[in-house]
UniProtKB/TrEMBL annotation:
KW Transport (keyword) present: yes
One GO MF term attached to the UniProt entry: ATP binding
Family the entry assigns: Belongs to the ABC transporter superfamily.
Superkingdom as given in the UniProt entry: Bacteria
Protein name: NitT/TauT family transport system ATP-binding protein
Positions of the ABC transporter domain: 4-226
Keywords, alphabetical: ATP-binding, Nucleotide-binding, Transport
Length: 226
């Protein structure tokens, strides 16, 4: 079964008597090793979609199947990364990356080895003991990327992870991310408002419509034009 199958998802927010329909009827499949970018107007429901997929929000209708299993609103082992790095300021870079392995109960030595290896691969070998406040924005986002990858998730959900970075840093981290993702044959759903980023990184671009949100178009990105 493909890693992720999203079928007929619908979601409205309700507060008091006010109902805001956000996602209409949305379906797609993310294949193994596939990178899909999701673009669409601000407020159309991209973050909502990602939160539904990772189990933070329950959809009103539809199903999310992860390797053929219906998640029924439960959280899965997918990796999740946001624009804000959400690093814990009182923990070193290494200890931030190791959070994931601690939560999973991975033995400390093995968790540390894995975390250090990832920091090395992301060019942060000399910064394992640094606290987030002493790192640049780009370095912090690399730490967040390492934390997302530390448990080897085969599906990554990335919500505008590069949006706050300056252009040069963004290009470097995009490159690192794609390399690590392709090496591990991981599948990625990348939300972005940057159409150039969407096209340069992804195998396929999904364009969402205004609310209620549906898939308006799906483009296969060919290597020739990327
Ligand atoms: P995007 O990520 O595409 O900018 P969001 O998923 O963040 O869109 O939001 C989609 C719509 O849902 C927006 O109109 C937003 O104001 C509304 N919304 C998001 N979260 C909530 C919430 N918890 N309660 C009510 N409305 C919300
Ligand atoms: P940005 O500051 O735009 O986020 P990067 O994260 O790519 O850019 O950092 C650029 C380079 O600057 C890094 O490769 C690193 O060598 C150096 N650097 C950034 N922050 C620090 C720091 N706190 N201590 C030492 N070197 C740093």
């Amino acid at each position: 079964a493909p890693p992720l199958v999203v079928e007929h998802i619908a979601k409205s927010y309700v507060s008091g008597s006010k109902v805001t329909p956000v996602i209409g009827d949305l379906s797609f499949t993310l294949g193994r090793g596939e990178i899909i970018s999701v673009v669409g107007p601000s407020g159309c429901g991209k973050s909502t979609l990602l939160n539904v997929i990772c189990g933070l929000i329950r959809p009103d209708a539809g199903s999310i199947r992860y390797h053929g299993r219906d998640l029924k609103g439960q959280q899965s082992s997918m990796g999740y990364m946001l624009q804000k790095d959400l690093l814990l300021p009182w923990r070193s870079a290494l200890a931030n990356v190791m959070l994931g392995t601690e939560i999973r109960g991975v033995p400390r030595r093995r968790g540390e080895e894995r975390a250090r290896a990832l920091l090395d691969q992301l060019g942060l070998d000399g910064f394992a003991d640094n606290y987030p406040a002493t790192l640049s924005g780009g370095m912090r986002q690399r730490v967040a990327l390492a934390r997302t990858l530390v448990n080897d998730p085969d599906v990554l959900l990335l919500d505008e992870p590069f949006a706050a970075l300056d252009f040069q840093t963004k290009l470097l981290i995009e490159g690192d991310t794609v390399r690590l993702v392709r090496d591990g044959q991981r599948s990625v759903l990348l939300i972005t408002h940057d159409i150039e980023e969407a096209v340069s990184i992804a195998d396929r671009v999904l364009v969402l419509s205004q609310r209620p949100t549906r898939i308006k178009a799906s483009y296969q990105v060919s290597l020739d034009c990327a």
